[in-house]
Amino acid sequence: MAGNKKELAPVKLELIICIVDKSKVLFYTDLLQTCGSSLQVTTGAKGTADTSILDMLGLMDHEQSAIFAVLRSDKVEETMDLLENRFRNIRNGKGIAMTVPLTSTIGTLVYGFLTGDERMINNG
Prior knowledge:
This protein is an alpha+beta fold. The chain has a single domain, classed as 2-Layer Sandwich (Alpha-Beta Plaits), CATH 3.30.70. It is built from 5 helices and 4 strands; from the N terminus they run E-H-E-H-E-H-E-H-H. Strands 2-3-1-4 form a 4-stranded antiparallel beta sheet. The chain is elongated. The two termini are 16 Å apart.
């Protein structure tokens, strides 16, 4: 009977995309994990600015990384505020972040993994 098992209404998920200096990628992935992200994927990143402009601004030696992290939507505002604070106050910690809403996930096990919700993983 479906009535015996309490249904869990899932909280929506969002993908946070951060572009940060390569030397700070571990700092920011750890930060996102402490904010509740169970999954962070990093990759190298390259800007589209002309090399002469980068040279003029003194940015030629800066390698970038992109961090993709999944987070519950109810934790996004606090996480974005924390990221903004770190971007402003950490030495060489500048970066940019944005979110993209995820419209669906397939299965409670996947959702449970992405949110770190042990109840969904164990009951799935």
